[in-house]
Amino acid sequence: MNRPLFTGALGVAAAVALGAPSFAQEPLTLEDLFEIRQVSGVDISPDGEQVAFTLSVPRNVVAGEEDGAPRAELYVASGPDAARLYVSDESYISGAHWSPQGDGLTYLTRRDGDTGSALYEIPVDGGQARRIFAHDASIQSYVIAPDGETLFFIARDKADPVQSELRDRGFMANVYEENDVFSHVWRADLSDTDAEPVRFDLPGHASSLVLSEDGSRLAVALAPTTLVDDSLMERQWHVVNAANGSVVSTIETEGKIGMAAFSPDSARLAFIAAADRADPTAGTLHVADAASGEFRALARDAEQHVSQLAWIDRDSILTVASVGTGTALVEYNINGREERRTPTEAGVISAMDYDRDDRVLATTIHAATHPRELFVGDRRRLSQWTDHNPQLANIAWGDQRVFEFEARDGERIEGVLVTPQGDAPQGGWPMIMTVHGGPEAHDSNGWVNGYSNLGHIGAGQGFAVFYPNYRGSTGRGERFAKLDHLDAPGEEFWDLVDAIGALSEAGIVDADRVGITGGSYGGFASAWAATVASEHFAAAAPFVALTDLISFYGTTEIPIEMVDVHFMQPPWADWMNYLEHSPTYHAPGSTTPTLILHGEADTRVDTSQSFILYRIMKQTSDAPVRLVTYPGEGHGNRRAAAQYDYGLRVQRWMTHYLMGEGGEPPAPELDLAERLGLNDAE
Predict the structure, then answer these.
(1) DSSP code, position 573
(2) pTM, two decimal places
(3) Which residues in the chain land under pLDDT 50?
């Protein structure tokens, strides 16, 4: 039990145990995060020579910028260190693509005068962006046909003017889960500004669309209603005639679906989906006959999860697969035979675009010492084209590696470990365990730093930080992802306790100074640790956490998903099972100082979950407990000020109870005025 093993992440050349370069000055800080830029979408030009991408730029509230969510910039890169900025004044950009002729870039944004997101185009050879199409409601996503004149897009119907007038007069009652406003697929003629768009009469709520290369077929993801549960569990791909909107076939999968792409001859549709309804994630490659809808799963038993795909030719498919804590480029024949597997040596791939004609592959890759950057090459070798964070060259990084151990029942568990540089002190470092949500997610051996992931920030302060991929996580195939079924939280959360034992036995951490944090399902784990397993954790900071499973079922927007892919039975089938698996049930007598944090506009995990835990711990435990809520924030903080406040509070809580004097909690106020220089301004 608890036998440790160190390994490198699969295929990650930026290896393991990354020591600081000789010129490094200071460790990474929370303040540094608000200067870090990350590449997101990538799109290769029709001639294969350039790559368009968007860059996420945070609001640096530490430096006095206005609060808000990150803004976006649009770039075109033609080679290493050769990226040109095209659009920088938009707060929001999505769906950036090359025009079919390759002479412009199209994207969605909302400018002054727009009633919603509209379609804009900017010339590649210079000039101002112009609006080329706007709808009565926001355009959610779009594709342009090869002729450059036909636009397909997803949007809602125009708002009913009578209903708008009633709302203006104060009649705003909401009939819960019955006020459906469906999104539809529309076709518009870009060459005729006076022509009205045509709405396709499709059976359901549209959320995604893909166009075949010849423009003859669309693949449309449709759900029966607009409910989040249906978008997760009931969506299916439909092949649609692009000329008249008639349904050619329906791909009748059960459970979750992911991205899709037509084969070069439009005869097949490759897509990512769950292996069955009980599979927690869409992570298995499938291929369907576009005309009939008949499909088959490829490599279902592989210990991996597929996240991206593109056709290499009419008979083979390129995929990005998460394999443990790394990624690999895996090529499959349509019959399911694996043709080639190439671990991604540059880091962890998060997105890709592939130009089949020119055999060019563009990706976003993150690694231990840099966030997502643009990497371009072919299917065997990738080179870095951008470095938007040169300041990171002066960071004194901690040591990052993969840590693997054996749980109490013999199951192999792995995670990403970040420690201060050098050997552990006698007795080990204090540790912050950071638990991912989902649980159908995993932490990769790449960039592990964020406002809620202290990573190298924690290491710079003398903490070990461990990201466990407990059973139920992705990256290890269908079998591993289903190990939490009927027993959540059961053995999956005891994996966290066993991690402490393994890390302690290896001399890395001090088992008496372990804190835990995480959001959503990771918050559930943190609340569980502070109650059921209180004796193992000296501090906890659950964020947007499930705490009372019965009331969670009644207030969440995903009750069906919760049952069908995790708990496997509804509460009324076994009330006591739900009750006994709730942290609130075990809260009396907790000894773990607990900082509870939650967004007040959260619809996934209602804020009441945190109030319930707070109240019960306050009344039945002598452990310090504090509740902090964030107005306007949902299931995770989007605005910079709320992110900074959150990071400071968790950082201070862990320092106080794992390194400091403990006892009474630190003051409820933060020293924000001093940190932001407001005292100097006076």
Answers:
(1) G
(2) 0.93
(3) 1-22, 24
